[in-house]
Design goal:
The protein is an all-alpha fold. Helix content is 76%, strand content 0%. The longest helix has 29 residues. It starts with 11 loop residues before the first helix and ends with a helix.
Amino acid sequence: MVANKNSIHVSGDELLARAKLCARLLEVVDEITTASGLISEGKYWDSYKLTSKIEFMVAEVSADLHGIDLAAGDQS
């Protein structure tokens, strides 16, 4: 594999933190799939409650990603 000219050095800690975020995103996808199944079953209230949980999970992941970017020196 050849490194891209624009590639940047990533520390082991940053790589691990991003991998953990990917695992958490898989949990979000699983919850979305569950919510979709609940809608198909006509369990709209249960799906709504689960959607609120999903929104909270996504907000946490977003905040953690922002923290990782700040720690890595990305100020954007």
